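Q: I have two molecules that I believe assemble together. Could you output structure tokens for the complex as a whole instead of separate predictions?
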Amino acid sequence: QKEVEQNSGPLSVPEGAIASLNCTYSDRGSQSFFWYRQYSGKSPELIMFIYSNGDKEDGRFTAQLNKASQYVSLLIRDSQPSDSATYLCAVAGNTGKLIFGQGTTLQVKP
Amino acid sequence: KAGVTQTPRYLIKTRGQQVTLSCSPISGHRSVSWYQQTPGQGLQFLFEYFSETQRNKGNFPGRFSGRQFSNSRSEMNVSTLELGDSALYLCASSPGSGRALEQFFGPGTRLTVL
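A: Yes, here they are, computed for all two components at once.
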């Protein structure tokens, strides 16, 4: 079992829709959770982080964390073609080491 | 504030050679982490340096090593290069203490081993 799992996609949504990206992790001691966006040929860019159970909103992005279910998700409201990218989920335990999932490719179609 | 810089951006080497990559973190950041990214394996953690000490290490062979200097700049070295070492090598910096784990990536060094 991989430590951090994501559906590789591609996830295709129409412009203006809500995109829902999901991630599960295996280490129950994980404490910090991050979402990165990576455009093709570019390096990952941090877009959200969450430490506590519940929802955290930042503009069109909402991160959701459920530690009991070992599940973290990212919602993108009013999806735009510029949101088309690979979204990487990353999880850190108390050692601080960041473990990344394989990423989900999102395609937003005009 | 200037972002994370990595040099060189592109590198071509042959099998058996060694290579050194450099990373300058964001000013004030004390932690530098290195990752290898390939299409098949994704982003894999190599090691993390904090205040000149290796704090975390991934599951890579001893051919991969690193160090950090007193100004927080870091270098990564790969000896006896293999074809499978062809990848994008990314470094990321963070403040590094407490919960300040948010990492910011540099543009990467694209290494091709022939």
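A: One point stands out. Chain A has no helices and eleven strands.
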